[in-house]
Amino acid sequence: MILVTGGAGFIGANFVLDWLADCDEPVINLDKLTYAGNLHNLASVEGVARHLFVQGDIGDRALVAGLLAKHRPRAVINFAAESHVDRSIHGPEDFIQTNVVGTFHFLEEIRAYWNAMEGMEKAEFRFLHVSTDEVYGSLGPHDDAFTETTAYAPNSPYSASKAASDHLVRAYHHTYGLPVLTTNCSNNYGPYQFPEKLIPLVMMNAVAGKPLPIYGDGLNVRDWLYVGDHCSAIRAVLSAGQAGEVYNIGGRNEKTNIDVVKTICTMLDALHPASPVTPHEKLITYVKDRAGHDRRYAIDARKIERELGWRPQETFETGIRKTVAWYLANPDWVANVATGEYRHWVEKQYGSQA
Ligand code: NAD
Ligand code: DAU
């Protein structure tokens, strides 16, 4: 079996659902259920015996040691993290606690577990750490895309905390020989994304007739990848990646934020003409820029394509169409995540512009 952390969040839940649909191997899913963890994401596998959900913190060493001893996973995939840049700007502490301190405690327990293994079990064990392209910093308009050897230059408390966790993972391989794999992926979108992030926020506000907040001039560039393609890349790295190696994951879909938002508005004009305000573009509202806002991210994914034969299945056009359709088809999920905590966040981040 495998152990997945953060499997009630956006990418982790998509990974667990795809895994259970595609193979028979059981999954233990360890998630703290922070504001971003949502068991509704896993509703379709409720009662599935191959899925064991455990609420808990990756930094809880006794809990982690007990899970490892009891279930003896052959691999661990670490999605658990604080993940939202704007939240890290308002309050970095949770990011340091989970992404740095939590990852450290988790690695210590994984190391002890792996050290006690022998033979093939030890040789085949893998710890896969899921990271982000944001650790590489910000690109100018004509710079080459990030490769696995681009120097780290994180600019936000979030990306600095992820960079720290990547360095710890790297050090545990270099120093102790722990068989680690690290993936650095670009911006994901798709079903079950918490509506603090650009695409689900825009979907939710647009159908409610609320402003669509664009930071700064709207010309920051992100390199978008459909979440199912990120999950298939992680599976490819887990099964055939070389221990100690880093793999960048991306879909060559660079878009400005304003282009992304206008694309969603145009789709909604056709698919949801009953919204209170149409055309939906009328809702676009330029707001104060994010502090330290990275201008451009772009991933060079040639290594994973060449060495592991991975390719994304979705273009941005097909992926965003699926995503818009999913949010429209799942109003109950959207209503469920719009909790008190979510409303509190919107008030804090956007104030009277919300
Ligand atoms: P998310 O915020 O939607 O989910 C994070 C999950 O981790 C939640 O279920 C939360 O409850 C859980 N969690 C948080 N702290 C925990 C702790 N201490 N112990 C156990 N569980 C804890 O995040 P996401 O967007 O799904 O991102 C998952 C991972 O992928 C993160 O490591 C993130 O840095 C990375 N990543 C995200 C993107 C993206 O575009 N969203 C892109 C590249 C990499
Ligand atoms: O690049 C990978 C990263 O992508 C992940 O590591 C992070 O976990 C994930 O949150 C994401 O970070 P971003 O900051 O790029 O994503 P976000 O959806 O928050 O913002 C995308 C872009 O849209 C960014 O340039 C900021 C802008 N934005 C965002 C929000 C929430 C707006 O213009 N308005 C908004 O209201």
Describe it for me?
- This protein has helices at residues 10-22, 61-71, 85-90, 93-115, 119-124, 157-176, 198-208, 227-240, 257-271, 302-308, 316-329, 331-337, 340-350, and strands spanning 2-5, 27-31, 51-55, 75-78, 126-132, 180-185, 188-189, 212-215, 221-223, 225-226, 246-249, 254-256, 284-287.
- With 354 residues, the chain is of the alpha/beta class.
- It has a domain at 2-193 and 224-253 and 297-314: 3-Layer(aba) Sandwich (Rossmann fold).
- The strands form 4 sheets. Strands 3-2-1-4-5-6-11 form a 7-stranded parallel beta sheet, with helices on both faces.
- Helix 2 (61-71) runs parallel beside helix 4, helix 4 (93-115) packs parallel to helix 6 (157-176) and helix 9 crosses helix 11.
- The chain starts with a strand and ends with a helix.
- Bound molecules: nicotinamide-adenine-dinucleotide and 2'deoxy-thymidine-5'-diphospho-alpha-D-glucose.
- 2'deoxy-thymidine-5'-diphospho-alpha-D-glucose is lined by residues 83-85, 132-134, 186-187, 197-198, 201, 213-215, 220, 222, 257, 290, 297.
- Its cofactor is NAD(+).
